[in-house]
Amino acid sequence: MRQRMRKLLGSALLLVLVVFWALAATGLAGSRVASLSAPMQAAAFIALGLVWVIPAGLLIRWMSRPD
Questions:
Q1: Are the C-beta atoms of residues 33 and 45 closer than 8 Å to each other?
Q2: What region, left, alpha or beta, does residue 36 occupy, with left being phi > 0 and alpha being psi -120 to 50 degrees?
Q3: Max alpha carbon distance in the chain (Å)?
């Protein structure tokens, strides 16, 4: 697959990933995290806010691979 097509596909997948992760993290935070103590809530929110970076980084690395 050419790099131009990978970038187009990767951009669409990144958008789907961000929307999916935002909805999933919101649902998880509303149901499970709300009952935790304040320090545990902070840790959970930080983790939920940063975990999506790993698959996004792998996707971006794949997108920028040369032809």
A1: yes
A2: beta
A3: 50
Q: Is 57 exposed, middle or buried (0-12, 13-18, 19+ CB in 10 A)?
A: exposed
Q: Where are the alpha helices (DSSP H) in the chain?
A: 3-31, 38-50, 53-63
pLDDT in tens, the chain (67 residues): 899 999 999 999 999 999 999 999 999 989 999 899 999 999 999 999 999 999 999 999 999 999 8
